[in-house]
């Protein structure tokens, strides 16, 4: 059993899910004039929805979680604020997944207050219903048990983060600080229950070396405690 529930999502599933989402929007007779992608997760679904719904206008807003220095908690912020006039437009705000719902709520409120669309509806490929603070107007899939969806557009970022966690946890629990790449791959598959192409492991390791989290000596990877 993997330690962390992860589902590897393939590109063809994204196309299927976006197609299904488009059909639901179409069946509701909502015809958006403009699609607004929440950066960064909403980009690919938003582009596909433009195609599947025949929408030409695509814009974006970046709403992102921000860890405060005191680490009291996390709050979402709008990263690059700008003002446009959407008074005459019906808009559709889209994200990949609504987990806590905080980023989408923040984006929605910002858009309603400053861009003032005639109407704004929310869509997501997935909606984690037990934890989300908001139910989108449209979703393709309701997720009833929390899981991490490893989307194809965050593969390297996720693999890097996952490897870092494995290395840190092993150091904290067993004081293990030296690894071969094969050991990392084995542990990765045990922890996360997914397999990814080798180039992701190689690049992830290079990123961790560049960040000063590990050091590479011959074929050994050494965790540099305290440098992270
Ligand atoms: P929200 O709950 O509004 O989506 P979060 O800050 O929880 O806000 O999520 C922001 C982004 O983080 C999501 O749009 C998605 O890209 C990513 N994310 C959050 N939860 C998951 C998850 N369970 N699986 C994959 N990606 C996720």
The SSE string, one letter per element, is EHEHEEEHEEEHEHHEE
According to DSSP, the number of beta strands is: 11
**Structural class estimated from helices and strands:** alpha/beta
Low-confidence stretches: none
Strand order of the largest sheet: 4-3-2-5-6-7
CATH class of the largest domain: Alpha Beta
Proportion of strand residues:
25-35%
The average pLDDT is 94
Overall 3D geometry?
A: elongated
Supply the CATH architecture of the largest domain. 3-Layer(aba) Sandwich
**What is the count of distinct domains?**
2
Bound molecules: adenosine-5'-diphosphate
Largest sheet composition: 6 strands, mixed
Rg (CA only): 20 Å
Query: Given the structure, what is the number of helices?
Result: 6
Helix residue percentage = 25-40%
Description:
This protein is an alpha/beta fold. It folds into two domains: 6-150, 3-Layer(aba) Sandwich (Rossmann fold), CATH 3.40.50; 154-223, Arc Repressor Mutant, subunit A. Helix content is 38%, strand content 28%. The protein has six helices and eleven strands. The chain has helices spanning 11-27, 43-53, 102-115, 155-174, 181-192, 198-210, and strands at 6-8, 34-39, 57-67, 74-78, 90-98, 119-128, 138-143, 148-150, 178-179, 214-217, 220-223. The strands form three sheets. The chain has a six-stranded mixed sheet with strand order 4-3-2-5-6-7, with helices on both faces. A three-stranded antiparallel sheet has the order 9-11-10. A hairpin with a 6-residue loop joins strand 3 (57-67) and strand 4. Helix 1 (11-27) packs across helix 2 and helix 4 (155-174) packs across helix 5 (181-192). The two termini are 29 Å apart. The mean pLDDT is 94. Bound molecules: adenosine-5'-diphosphate (ADP). Adenosine-5'-diphosphate binds at residues 41, 65, 76, 95-104, 148-149.
């Amino acid at each position: 059993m993997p330690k962390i529930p992860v589902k590897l999502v393939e590109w063809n599933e994204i196309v299927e899910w976006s197609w299904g989402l488009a059909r639901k929007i179409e069946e509701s007779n909502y015809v958006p004039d403009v699609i607004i992608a929440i950066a960064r997760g909403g980009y690919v679904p938003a582009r596909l929805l433009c195609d599947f719904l025949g929408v030409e206008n695509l814009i974006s807003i970046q709403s992102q979680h921000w860890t405060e220095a005191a680490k009291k908690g996390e709050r979402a912020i709008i990263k690059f604020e700008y003002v446009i006039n959407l008074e005459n437009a019906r808009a559709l705000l889209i994200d990949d997944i609504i987990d806590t719902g905080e980023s989408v709520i923040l984006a929605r409120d910002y858009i309603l207050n400053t861009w003032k669309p005639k109407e704004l509806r929310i869509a997501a490929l997935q909606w984690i219903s037990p934890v989300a603070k908001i139910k989108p107007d449209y979703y393709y899939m309701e997720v009833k048990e929390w899981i991490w969806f490893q989307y194809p557009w965050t593969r390297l970022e996720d693999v890097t983060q996952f490897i870092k966690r494995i290395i840190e946890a092993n150091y904290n629990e067993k004081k293990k600080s030296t690894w071969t790449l094969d050991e990392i791959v084995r542990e990765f598959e045990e922890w996360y229950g997914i397999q990814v192409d080798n180039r992701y492991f190689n690049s992830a390791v290079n990123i961790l070396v560049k960040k000063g989290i590990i050091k590479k000596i011959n074929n050994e990877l050494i965790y540099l405690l305290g440098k992270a």
